[in-house]
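Anyone opening a protein record will find just a pair of labelled lines. With that in mind, the following record should read easily:
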Amino acid sequence: MKKSKFELSSRVLAIMGVPLAFALSIGFPLPSVVEVGAVAFAAGGSGGQGGGQGKGLGGGTTGAGQRPDMGGGTGLEDKVLRGGKDSITITEEEDSDRPPWAQTPGREGKPGSGGGKPTGAGTMKGDLYGDLWVILRDANGVPILDQYGHVQPIDADGNLIPLNEEGEPIDEAAAALVQEVEFSRLNVARSPSKVSEKSYDSVLTALNSATNITLDPAGRLVLTIDGVVKTIDSPLENLVLYEMLLDKGFLPGLTVDDAILGSLIFLKDAQLTAADLDAATSFLAAASDKTTTVTMDSVVYLNSILNISGTIVVNGDSYVDYSTFNYDRTSTYPGDITYLTDDGSGTGTYITVTEPIMTAVFGDETYTSSDGGVDGFAQATDDARTLIEFIHEPIH
């Protein structure tokens, strides 16, 4: 059974963008609060400063370099990237002062993501700007090809879309059924390497300066630095945390004391564990657009754009092994959440409502993935994204 996203000994107050004066003006009884990014959470019992938060993982008491692009490959993922646009190559002067973690080897001695570029590839990740289709995949996201070696797009009901021998929809009616994957904010993954390097340097500095590290209800990192509590909520920083953890199995350059990391000590090892995958869902959720659903296809395509090294290799393309990842929504989110809502009187009066997270956020709809696979990973990510969206909305 996976650990809870958090074990609240007190209820969580989620208010974003609601000034203290406004809360007082509506007669809202405020508990003792600590500032966590743009969200105020009720101070609770367990954990460090800003307690009552996290995945049940508390702190103690006290970039990647240039990556090979998708545009230069010849494997399965090139078959997945549809559209006839040519690769776009952008020339960039080689950076002479790259940080030491940029060439850190990956887990099990694999090359780090700071390797060289294939012929014809530029400094942008994901140079081939084609349409990305929703396609038939196996449990780990590996495309299942047809008899001609083409990926097989599926419609909104999961039915195969008929293709010709060239791998194109047989007619306009079939083409209209093709689904394109939405990335929204995650398109930033195509940014030049310098963008991710700067973001990783920033978040690594913050982590190494922290005197306490916990998790918020959605699993985002919450740091205490010089007495100030801050949630790592930057999409870019969370994306590079996701990339590093999934690609390397740890965060290169993380030197903060083990006692401060506490149960988050897995962020330092070089093994891709269940704890890493669990944390990666939260990092990816925080990097995603708050209103765009995270799907199996968007996860697998993103991993390819970021050139994340997996242990499953098919026709020259590698895929992350999700076979050990299990997820249960009810056991992950057992706590309550308190929020503001209109009292219905038409006078603009707001009242507080406290409900189980399963009720308030997920409408009591359960979900369990116990046989492993990227579909459960994608759902866990999207659930964390949904909770972040709920927390960021001031009134429900």
Q: What stands out?
A: Residues 134-179 form one domain. The radius of gyration is 22 Å. The chain has a mean pLDDT of 74. DSSP finds eleven helices and 14 strands in the chain.
